[in-house]
Amino acid sequence: MLNLGRTSLGKAAGQRRRLPRPVRNAIGVLVSLGLTFLGLLMVTFLIGRVVPIDPVLAVVGDRASPEVYERVRIELGLDRPLYEQFWIYLSNVVTGDFGQSALTSRPVLEDIARVFPATLELATLGTLIGVLLGVPMGVLAAVRQGRWQDQMVRVLGLFGYSLPIFWLGLVGLLLFYARLGWVSGPGRLDVFYEGMIPTVTGMILVDSLIAGDLDIFRNALGHIVLPASLLGYFSLAYISRMTRSFMLEQLRQEYVTTARVKGVSHGRVIWRHAFANIRVPLITVIALSYAHLLEGSVLTETVFAWPGLGQYLTNSLLKADMNAVLGSTVVVGAVFIGLNMLSDLLYRLLDPRAR
Amino acid sequence: MTQIEEASRSTGLREWLLSNEPQSARQARLGRAYATWSAFRENRLAMLGLAIVLLLVVVALFAPLIATHSPNVQALGDRLQPPSAAHWLGTDEFGRDIFSRLVYGSRITLYIVVLVTLTAAPIGLLIGTVAGYAGGWGDAVLMRVTDIFLAFPKLILALAFVSALGPGIENAILAIAITSWPPYARIARAETLTIRNSDFIAAVKLQGASAARIITRHVMPLCLSSLIVRVTLDMAGIILTAAGLGFLGLGAQPPLPEWGAMISAGRRFILDQWWVATIPGIAIFVVSLGFNLLGDGLRDVLDPKHRS
Questions:
Q1: Residue B79 is assigned to a structural domain of this protein
Q2: Exposure winner among A110, A340, A341, B8, fewest CB in 10 A?
């Protein structure tokens, strides 16, 4: 729906200016990216202003004298009109200044940079699982429409849309960690291994390979496999459903019948002909699902004591550490918006029909 | 004899409902509702979904009659009891009966779903129809705002709102509502665009109806069926988000028997007393599944794009 509006806009503009279409498209996407990001900042700014917590008190503490209180109030720009405050906020955020965390008394950006790789690692592995299983399952469901394979994929998807992720995480821990002992428990590593390899990317699976330490790699894998599979399941539910409906649409087309009549093999018709045509919309679906996993990891991280952005956000929420909350919101929001727009852009660059 | 009479009367009613030449607007409306219902009834999964949702409503309405214990009275001597004849689903860490808490918790779930829907759907409907009917600059601005909200991460934004407003069930509802209206606005706008230039709108306009009247009396009612489908499909998501907020301690506060908060409280005992945390999760799952099945079924009968 989003695409329709913009494409028609692009067409009208094209008659006046003569920029090449991909450039115009890219400009359009960048403009909406900027506007959306500005909107996000406006919302976080307003949230920061309606908080019943006094931001000055958070800095100076309860026992500060009125003079100190007043000085800090002016320092924070709280005596100026709202639009000026927004401008200050905007220029701070753009330079990466989200203020200090009241909880860790470090700059929020530094905290986020420290915890973000853990979330990225989890969400990436989750998406990988979701894609590797979800795409073939969606194709299978479409090819076997109405048969038991289709029903099974449908039920898996339906459950994915109905199960609370945090509950499934708890049950998974109970079953696979406590009862069966197949996977390791909460956290990213056994305590014994903590801090034994130098941090390069912050993603332990990658760092341990760089350091060449397979023991740590195996240990980390044992910890990540359950939360990543869980996220992967939810991504699978979405990806397989979308793949199925894209494939069904293709399999109904006449070119598929033609190919079959010409004697092209079954597998070739499906993978070379039909599947080739759904790759582009599939990329956008995968990007969206990735963005949702980054967001959805908030609850998963809480269950698995995973020291990522989600846990940082929830901890700050519960301690009313507003700078940290809003900083994390902006970062997650920016990544989310960025992925959204990237998928939109990819779709337009790769799909000849959208050009 | 009476059976035959009844049967003939009911076929008479059926014929009257499905008549191709309805004598009144009421007959036509009832007839269409009956046809929709007949199509819906064919779908067994959708009927299962409807049954689950109706069960939720009945349990919520008659909670005091159904519950075997009080949801809040503590009995520390009975804490963490496994399921038994006295406590069908066991007891929690304060010796409260889990079954009774689940029963009362259905009221909270229903309360959240209904309030979020009643807040978000009208906002979306109003923005979408006004944007679609007005067109031009108004449309561009309203839809840009909608797009911006649509591009936000919903859960994170809801979290930020709740943290600003303070934890609690009303604030959770408000936060979820603020983040869920944009899809409704898009749907309403798309429907409005298809209706806007139809002859009957032109006729009403010639009769001198104002824009406000056209939107509220003629455009909005026609947007409702697509909106109902989408809202029903979203209800499972609303339940899951609310439970997630409750789980994080930002939704309904203790001692309210909110299902997500119950899971969170039972977490500590999951290794030895698994029922405390797992049973409320099953309740959330069943209810979300019910709304999903119902939504799928409604989409099949109401959404013209999915009608075969």
A1: no
A2: B8
Residue A77: half-sphere exposure toward Cβ, Cα within 13 Å: 13
Q: Least CB-CB distance to B160: which of A292, A299, A326?
A: A326
* Coil vs helix vs strand at B304: coil
pTM: predicted TM-score of the whole model, two decimal places: 0.86
Chain centre distance of CA A314: 16
Q: Half-sphere exposure of residue A103, counting CA atoms within 13 Å on the CB side? A: 16
Mean pLDDT of all residues belonging to chain B? 88
What local confidence, expressed as pLDDT, does residue A294 receive?
83
* pLDDT number for residue A30: 83
What confidence tens digit (pLDDT) does each residue in B56-99 have? 999 999 999 998 888 888 888 888 888 888 888 888 888 899 99
Q: ipTM of this predicted complex?
A: 0.86
Summarised one tens digit per residue, pLDDT across range A271-324 is: 888 898 888 889 888 988 998 888 788 889 999 999 999 899 888 888 878 888
For B144-183, the DSSP string reads HHHHHHHTS-HHHHHHHHHHHH-SSHHHHHHHHHHHHSHH
Contact residues on chain A for B147, CB-CB shorter than 8 A:
2, 32, 36
Residue B44 covered by a domain:
no
Q: What is the reported pLDDT for A300? A: 92
Residues of A with Cβ-Cβ distance to B148 under 8 angstroms: 35-36, 39-40
Residue at token pair 């990540």 = A224
Note whether residue B228 is domain-resident.
Answer: yes
Distance from CA of B218 to the nearest CA of A (A): 24
B191 falls within a domain? yes
Domains present along chain A, CATH in parentheses? 1-37 (no CATH), 112-354 (1.10.3720.10)
Contacts of A322 in chain B (CB under 8 A): 163-164
Indicate which CATH number applies to the domain containing B226: 1.10.3720.10
A317 touches chain B (CB under 8 A): yes
